[in-house]
Prior knowledge:
This protein is α+β, with helices and mostly antiparallel strands. Helices cover about 35% and strands about 25% of the residues. α6 (about 200-215) packs across α7. It starts with a helix and ends with a helix.
Amino acid sequence: MELVELLGELVAIDSVNPDLVPGGAGETELAAYVARWCDRAGLAVELYEPAPGRPNVIAVARGLGGGRSLLLNAHLDTVGVAGMVRPHEPRIEGGRLYGRGAYDMKAGLAAIMVAAADSARAGLRGDVILTAVADEEFRSVGTESIAGRLRADAAIVAEPTELRLCLAHKGFVALEVESLGRAAHGSRPDLGVDAIAKMGGVLVGLQELDRRLRAGPTHALLGSGSVHASLIEGGQEFSSYPERCSLAAERRTVPGETDAQVLAELQAILDEAATADPQFLGAARIVFSRPPLEVSGEEPIVRVLRRAAGEPEVIGAPYWTDAALLGAAGIPTAIYGPGGEGAHAAVEWADLDQLEGCARVLLATATEWCA
């Protein structure tokens, strides 16, 4: 019951990411709660801000010495609550706990808190390091800071996997394309060049690229990458030829695909558009990117986690998580967490049986890994 009550208390604290929702509460109150709870549980606690007003919690179950260290990670922030009814009043019904963040990912947070606290009482040789981080839902400044600040022999990110073992997930590249036209009155086609219409060739090229990517899957767990147009804007007013058009697009990547490859794909589309239409003038750039994740099934931490979890199903995930930042920092990282439903949706719930099971598996993993 302690674990379920803990999840309820976490859900009751509003931690909507303020970069997603202006005026959102942020992680400050929740981080303070987690820090106090971990301190009472006997962990060595540090509370700091990787960005102003965006706190991380590091809480360590100190080992006796000579053992391997294990980092457990969960994020504090949630998405917004539009369309929800009493999102921060946790409700239990039918083995489920409802509320914003219950599934994504305060159930995982509760599980790693209890596992770390139990590890502190187990007399392990290695450290168990809990990291409760800010801003996963936007720019991941929390785990980005952790990856540059801490070292560990292995890590588990407790994102919801329905107690399956996730060994890979996709990355993403945010792209921006601009086409240029010539402004003129709508009655003067002899003077104007329509920047919005000129973007049409780029859109067709993106659609064709997506078709080719998905027709040739390259990864056993993740299949293929993909690309889609996200936002488009342009023009000055109704009765004018638009002088510019801006397109935002997203390329989802699988392990082995690089930013340079993605930019080259897009440049090839622009080159083809220019060949087909000498009036086309366009440029592309990468705005932001995050790498995909892949960890070998033969990594020692993966073998230990598989044994502790009773040989669960192995999966890849189409979305991105902070695990990729830890993996890129050289820490072998797997993803394992409790199930539920409703990430970013108006109805969100966590499976309480899986919550209990996840905490047991994490403790068993820490016990073997850090012994």
